[in-house]
Amino acid sequence: MEKSWIKLELNKILDMCKEKCFTPMGRERVEQLLPVRDREKVKRRLQATSEGAELLRLYPQIPWGPVHDLRIALRQALGGGIWSPEELWQLASTLSSIHRIRAFFQQIERDKAYPLLHSLAQGLTPLADLEREIYRCIGPGGEVLDSASPRLASLRREIQRVQGEVKGRLESFLRSPEIQKYLQDNLYTLRHDRYVLPVKQEYRHKVPGLVHDQSASGATLFIEPLALVELNNELRRLAAAEAREIEAILEGLTRKVAQKGAIILKNLEILGELDFILAKARLSREMEGQEPFLNEEGRWRLLRARHPLLGKEAVPIDLTLGEDFHTLVITGPNTGGKTVTLKTVGLLTLMAQCGFHLPAASGTEIDPTAEVFADIGDEQSIEQSLSTFSSHMSHIVNIIQRATPKSLVLLDELGAGTDPAEGAALAMAILDHFTRLGARTIATTHYSELKAYAYTAPGVENAAMEFDSRTLRPTFRLLVGTPGESNAFIIASRLGLPPDIVEKAQEYMGEKEKRASLLIAGLAEDKRLSQREREEAERLKRETEKLQQQLLELKEEWQEKVKKEAEKFKREFRQLLQRARAQIREVLARVERALAEESLQNQRRALYAAQRELKELEVEMEGRLEAYRLPQGEKVLPPGRVKPGDRVRLRGWGQVGEVVSCGPGEKEAQVQVGYLKVSVPLGELELLEQGNGEGKGIYRGWHLEVAPKDIRPEIDLRGLTVEEACHRVEGYLDDALLSGFTQVYLIHGKGTGALRRALQEYLKAHPLVKDFRLGGPQEGGSGVTVVELKR
What we know:
alpha/beta
């Protein structure tokens, strides 16, 4: 890593990021991360971090499972090695994590907000068959399961049987009074995978068998009774067969792993990249980072920028460079924050080049194509016998040799460590060089000569770290455009230095220095006032933006509420409309029955009764719909004498009809409404403008469908669902009856016949349907239902 990067503590940022990784591959990527100076590469890195931060905001619990770094083991498998059960289990758990991660990204793919992350996740290849095969054969403790093969299961059953027989015989020995007196302990044990009894040394010949071991004292011999030799031999044979079967199983699984080796390696690489991106996103959220704007014009604009290693308590700085000036000279007291400011600018630049978000306000801008050079800290080298000045100067010489117009140069305490006059002269000459070169430069200094230099040199600007002379403490705030104050006399006085000594010191200062000191003090005060005013303006701006956001949220909430109310109204209105249609059909049916009677008086009574009922229905619907009025859509002409042929609206009915007859002096008019002729008082009629209202009636501000003149004797229902078709047929039959049709055709097509059967079931219960049948050969056959309407 470059020396300047270490000086700026980039390595500490990488360590913080590494702690956020879940996988070894992700941590490896952080360790290999280096700044780049290609704007497009930086942009892609930042975009990936931004996608990760947004993803974590919406989905904090991404389903990461165990992920193991099996790359070395995979290379061994490809070379013919055999994996252990533990390695196979690690692979299976890693494959499970791959499956979950890919499923997670497929689930959120509809958001279309994470193109880079989606593209990465799409490259993951789940190996479900291999995963299931490993889980079938290997247990979570790394043991090979009986289910791995029928032969293994059979061998293990046989081993259990023989072990049971061996233990049974051993138990019989232990229970035998003849044998017990020869035993050191009343138990059996294992030696060299064979079951033995602990026999006292002196009774060696009393228990015939093979001696396999003895105790450290020699007092106990571990003897395998002759009666158990064959059984123990059988156990050894079965155990060897079991070991060979396990090895064959592991070898077979390893071959399957090797066949998928390239896919597994690719999956591990993708998981590492996803983990790496999300680790940067977690770090961004922790430090409240923002994606900066990028430029290639050598421009820096830091807004409320904080040093990331100082946390949220760090005093933010505002700084510009490369716009009105290319070189910034920062003065101020020790421990006032000059070095922190240098490091903040350099470290944030390197972080952006690595793809990290910056702990700064929105609108922060940097040039990622700049090469960062820094000379910071005590550079004294005992090994090379270099003084602080010599070491600093050696480093600056190296920077001068490598710097270009695309460089960002950061110089701490420039010219320090030697004679003040010579150091100041050298510092000005060095700053002249970098300014002429076109490099962006920030330097800190104590020299008063550099304050004056920054006032007169083109392209150079002063800045100061603010110092509170009342508390004798730095505020750590950067004031661009103002040199640092001379605080030595003030601090000395506040600390108790006798006034006569302070006055004498002031006398030793030249008149020129005094004027400069007073000028600087005045400028600093003006800067503080303007800074406070600017901060107040920023505060008011933030409050305004907050209020605007609250108003926007209230607007969205109101719009959502209106939308829900509109949906609720649609449902209620549809129900009211269905109820009204049913009641109208019932009234018309009673009118038809009355018209069928012989007595004209009965006909009139039935008609007037129907009119009263319709009037009551109008009043009820008016009350129900009072809260949902809409603007009327038809123009009503001024009242006047109607004449045959005029289009009128019946106020009491909310229907549109045509005047059939109305003689001079009559108080009523005969009006044709659909196939009905009714007598209506002239006061209940509204004359409509010719050409208006065809097919529409106004019901107290609501548009209700009535029979249009151009209604056809057939309706096409093909392509509709059963629910949609029945809804269409309901209104169509009402309109057809009002238009005078006695027979209509429902075109539903042949298809599977499901729509035809559903419609016919619906027609069986419809009050307006007299009969129905399938169409004849000339009428469309089974693709059409012919409906006969009641009259």
